[in-house]
Amino acid sequence: MAGKPKMKIKKNDLVQVITGRSQANGGDKGKQGKVIAVYPETQRVLVEGINRVTKHTKAGAGGAASGGLEVVEAPIHVSNVAVVDPETNKPTRVKTRVETVERDGRTKTVRTRVAVRSGKDL
Questions:
Q1: Which of 43, 45, 56, 87 is most open to solvent, judged by the fewest CB atoms within 10 Å of its CB?
Q2: pTM for this one?
Q3: Where is the Large ribosomal subunit protein uL24 C-terminal domain (predicted)?
């Protein structure tokens, strides 16, 4: 495979978990959060407040970090989340609208991310 794979979800997008265990059973399905980081190589995203795991940390030699249990977010696969539509506040797919804009006698193509559900720009 040449280059890194494309992902329709970007950093700072508001996403909703669409698969997994329901909130009643201690899962994250239905929860919304902001994307902190995107990992195209593994097709995963890091979402704020979603997929929180307990990490056991060892006390550092320099004494900078104290040891113990630490709760952090773990990456979740991109297929398990969907971008939230800004108008309806529900999950939606993302499409790209290509426009040609004329500036200073030159034509330029501009790509805009659009929510499929409402047609609003993301």
A1: 56
A2: 0.80
A3: 50-121
